[in-house]
Amino acid sequence: MAELLAGVFGQESLWEINWTLEIFAIVTLTLLVRFGAIRALIVLQRQTEKTSNVWDDALVDAGRRPVSWFILIMGLLWAIETSEGYLQTELFNPENLHVIRQVTFIVLIMLFATRFITLAEARIMQSLKEESGQDQASLDPATLNALAKLLRLSVIISGVLIALPTFGIEITALLAFGGIGGIAVGFAAQDLLANFFGGLMIYLDRPFAIGDWIRSPDREIEGTVESIGWRLTVVRTFDKRPLYVPNSVFNTLSLENPSRMSNRRIKETIGIRYCDAAKMNAIVADVKNMLENHKEIDSSQTLIVNFNSYGPSSLDFFIYTFTKTTNWIRFHEIKQDVLLKIIEIVHAHAADFAFPTTTLDGLDAIRPEPDPQ
Predict the structure, then answer these.
(1) Among 307, 241, 252, which Cα is nearest to 279's?
(2) DSSP letter string over 101-170?
(3) Percent of the chain with pLDDT over 70
(4) Are residues 117 and 148 in contact, defined by beta-carbon separation less than 8 angstroms?
(5) How many other CB atoms are there within 10 angstroms of residue 17's CB atom?
(6) What does the pLDDT look like over 254-286, one tens digit per residue?
(7) Distance of alpha carbon 127 from alpha carbon 142, whole angstroms
């Protein structure tokens, strides 16, 4: 049969026909296998989306693209191997194809792992947002983002180290060179490393998170945390300017996080007139009773209302108490309500508030006598 075809088409034409048919069959089979695998993964993904587990969704979604590329590349390499008998070239020798297979497998596994980490991070982040307002989550978004970055970096480094021997590069020699070069790089990048470890400490200790209001009594740093990177933390000041703070600064900085306060404090000194001294005791008692029964005042915290001092122009008493809310706007509304109620109490006792006054005695003694004329 082959001799008959060779006689009809010629030896060279028959060679081309055989090569074309084999390549066509390989390409067709590759596309069919790819189509079937993708369809199977789509069906599997629809099933996993019905579950509440975030890991299976991320696993299937992350595997779609690497599986597609794996089938296509393996089919291409198969076609190249088939062509080796027809095309005599050093490019398609078995050793080169073996290296390409290994590198392809390593790269696709690395892409799958990084994609899986990214998708899992996004799904966990979404679940954390849905849980906000309920019980406090054990994992905040900043820590989740840091862990995802570390895992992706670990995957990439591991993939590179595994792929190096494929190209004939010994890892031991590379590590020896890295040990010597690392000393030089360490001296040249001290600030960069300090910022990196400063960022790591922020992620581990969690003195603040994205969205927290922070301020430092040591330096002029105050605002809302917008992002936490490995080198810089971005703080948006209250006049809406971005402040870029190197992470190493936080290693030696005293930092206050008002966002995590449990209550807000009302601390005021109030002065009444000296002529209302007899009413001081009743005023103090009524103010204290008002605070103890105020629905927005936390009576479980310290609550003090006492006559405090003799001022130059007033008798002073002070209030010291805490609101239940920590919201800045709501706090000022409550504080205004408390101060207005104090005004009502003072006026209800027919008393009034003092203000700076000066009294001059003995004016008659220093007044000049009238002219008898």
Answers:
(1) 307
(2) HHHHHHHHHHHHHHHHHHHHHHHHHHHHHHHTTSSPPSS-HHHHHHHHHHHHHHHHHHHHHHHGGGGT--
(3) 75
(4) yes
(5) 12
(6) 888 888 888 999 999 999 999 999 999 999 999
(7) 14
